[in-house]
C-alpha cells in the first residue's frame, strides 16, 4: 500500500492551508491600518507591489518545477510572505528593493528547499535580513509619522512616485525610536522624549498604535485557534523580564523600559505573525515555550548590546536554525511509555 507523503504544516478539521493563510491576512489589517494612518500610503504600495512580485515569482518557479499553478497559487502562502515583508519594509521603499527582497524570499527562502512545508527559515525574515545587510541606508530610512490627515503628508500618488520614480519626490524621513535610543549617549530618557518629536507616550509616535493593532490581530488568531499561545506569550514575557531587570529608570545609557520594548518596532508583529510560522518554528508545546522565550531574549540582547536596533529578523532566523534541536529534546512522551523510554506497567 502506498503511503501519502504529507509535510508540515498539518491541520485538523475544516481548516485548510488556504483558509489559514487568508485568516492570517485578515488579522494583519488592524496593524496595517495603523501603519497607513501614521506613515502614509507607502505601506499600501509596499504590500501591493510585494504581492504582485511574489505571485510572479511563485508562478515562475512552479512552472519550472512543472507543478500545477492553480493548486499552489490558491493556498495564498506567497501572498502571506509578501504581505509580511511589505509590512516590515520602510514605507516609500524603491520598487527594486521590494522586488529583490520578495524574490529572494520566494525563490531562495521557500522554493530552494522544496516549497511550502520544507523551508527551515521564515522566508519573509530571510528576505528582510538580506536587504538589511545589503542595503542598510534604504532599509533604515523610515517616513516621518506625520499621519495621512496632516498638512504635507504624502498622498497615494506621491507614494506611487516614491516607489517607482524615487528621484522625482522628496519624502520627509527620520530615524525610528529604536535607532534614536540606540544612538543616544548623552541625554536622559526624559530629555530625549522631550527633544525628539518621534517619541510618543510610552514608545514611538505611531508605533504604539501599530503594535496594539498587531496585538489585536494576534489575539483574534488565538481566538480562531490558528496557533497556540505558547511562543507569543513566552517571547513577550522574556522580553519584558529582561527590559525590567536592566532598566535603570532612564539614564543616558538606558536600554529602554519594558513598555518601550513591547510597543516599539516589530515586537507584536513578530510575536503573532512571524514566530508562529508552523513550518520554521518549534513544534511541541514545550519546544514553543523555549523557542519563544529565546527569541524574546535575543531581541533584547541585540537591540541593547548589538549593532541592529530592531533585532526581530536576526532573532527569528537564529532560532529557526535551532528549532530542530529544540524539537529533538522536547518530544512528547510516547503513549504507554515512561519518561525514561521504557514501557509503563
Automatic annotation (TrEMBL):
Membrane-spanning parts: 20-41, 47-64, 71-89, 95-113, 125-144, 202-222, 229-247, 259-276, 311-329
Entry superkingdom: Bacteria
UniProt keyword annotation of Transmembrane present: yes
Keyword Transit peptide attributed: no
Cofactor(s) annotated in UniProt: FMN
Cellular localisation: Cell inner membrane
FMN phosphoryl threonine: modified positions: 176
Record's keyword terms, sorted: Cell inner membrane, Cell membrane, Electron transport, Flavoprotein, FMN, Membrane, Phosphoprotein, Translocase, Transmembrane, Transmembrane helix, Transport
Membrane topology qualifier: Multi-pass membrane protein
Entry's EC annotation: 7.-.-.-
EC class of the enzyme, as a word: translocase
Entry function: Part of a membrane-bound complex that couples electron transfer with translocation of ions across the membrane.
Self-association and partners: The complex is composed of six subunits: RnfA, RnfB, RnfC, RnfD, RnfE and RnfG.
HAMAP family membership: RsxD_RnfD
Homology family: Belongs to the NqrB/RnfD family.
Protein name (database record): Ion-translocating oxidoreductase complex subunit D
Amino acid at each position: 500500500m502506498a503511503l501519502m507523503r504529507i509535510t508540515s504544516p498539518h491541520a485538523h478539521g475544516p481548516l485548510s492551508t488556504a483558509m489559514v493563510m487568508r485568516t492570517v491576512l485578515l488579522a494583519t489589517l488592524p496593524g496595517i491600518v495603523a501603519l497607513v494612518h501614521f506613515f502614509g500610503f507607502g505601506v499600501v504600495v509596499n504590500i501591493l507591489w510585494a504581492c504582485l512580485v511574489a505571485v510572479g515569482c511563485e508562478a515562475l518557479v512552479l512552472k519550472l518545477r512543472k507543478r500545477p499553478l492553480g493548486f499552489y497559487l490558491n493556498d495564498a502562502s506567497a501572498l502571506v510572505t509578501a504581505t509580511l515583508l511589505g509590512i516590515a519594509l520602510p514605507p516609500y521603499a524603491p520598487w527594486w528593493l521590494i522586488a529583490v527582497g520578495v524574490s529572494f524570499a520566494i525563490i531562495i527562502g521557500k522554493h530552494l528547499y522544496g516549497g511550502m512545508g520544507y523551508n527551515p527559515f521564515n522566508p519573509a525574515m530571510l528576505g528582510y535580513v538580506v536587504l538589511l545587510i545589503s542595503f542598510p541606508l534604504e532599509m533604515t530610512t523610515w517616513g516621518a509619522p506625520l499621519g495621512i490627515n496632516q498638512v504635507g503628508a504624502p498622498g497615494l500618488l506621491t507614494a506611487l512616485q516614491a516607489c517607482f520614480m524615487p528621484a522625482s519626490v522628496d519624502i520627509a524621513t527620520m530615524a525610528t525610536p529604536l535607532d534614536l535610543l540606540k544612538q543616544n549617549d548623552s541625554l536622559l530618557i526624559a530629555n530625549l522624549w522631550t527633544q525628539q518629536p518621534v517619541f510618543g507616550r510610552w514608545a514611538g509616535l505611531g508605533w504604539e498604535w501599530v503594535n496594539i493593532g498587531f496585538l489585536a490581530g494576534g489575539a483574534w488568531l488565538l481566538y480562531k485557534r490558528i496557533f497556540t499561545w505558547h511562543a507569543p506569550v513566552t517571547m513577550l514575557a522574556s522580553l519584558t523580564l529582561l527590559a525590567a531587570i536592566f532598566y535603570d529608570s532612564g539614564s543616558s545609557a538606558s536600554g529602554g523600559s519594558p513598555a518601550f520594548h513591547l510597543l516599539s518596532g516589530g515586537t507584536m508583529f513578530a510575536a503573532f505573525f512571524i514566530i508562529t510560522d508552523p513550518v520554521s518554528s518549534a513544534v511541541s508545546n514545550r519546544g514553543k515555550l523555549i523557542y519563544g522565550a529565546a527569541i524574546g531574549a535575543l531581541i533584547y540582547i541585540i537591540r541593547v548590546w548589538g549593532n541592529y536596533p530592531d533585532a526581530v529578523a536576526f532573532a527569528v532566523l537564529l532560532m529557526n536554525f535551532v528549532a530542530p534541536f529544540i524539537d529533538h529534546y522536547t518530544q512528547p512522551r510516547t503513549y504507554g511509555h515512561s519518561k525514561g523510554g521504557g514501557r509503563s506497567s
